[in-house]
Amino acid sequence: MATSPHPWLNPAVTVGGLAPLVFMAVQGPRGALGPNAIEAALNQTGLITLVLLVASLACTPVRLVTGWTWPARVRRTLGLLAFTYASSHFLTYVVLDRGLSLSALLEELAERPFIFVGFTAWMLLVPLAVTSTNAWVRRLGFPRWQRLHRLAYVAAVLGVVHFVWRVKKDVTEPVLYGAVLALLFALRVGEAMRKRRARAASAARNPA
Amino acid sequence: MSDDTPSGSDITPEPLYLRRRELLKNAGLFLGTAAGVAGGLLSLTGRGRGSSADAVPDAGAVAGPVVKAASEFDTSEPRTSYEDITTYNNFYELGLDKGDPARLAHLLKPRPWTVTLDGEVHEPRTVDIDQLLSWFPPEERVYRMRCVEAWSMVIPWLGFPLAALLAKVKPTSHARYVAFTTLMDPEQLPGQQRRVLDWPYTEGLRLDEAKHPLTFMAMGLYGRQLPAQNGAPLRLVVPWKYGFKGGKSIVRITLTRTRPFTTWNMAAPEEYGFYANVNPAVPHPRWSQATERRIGDFERRRTLPFNGYAEQVAHLYSGMDLRENY
Question: Which of B29, B286, B295 sits opposite A165 (nearest CB)?
Answer without folding.
Answer: B286
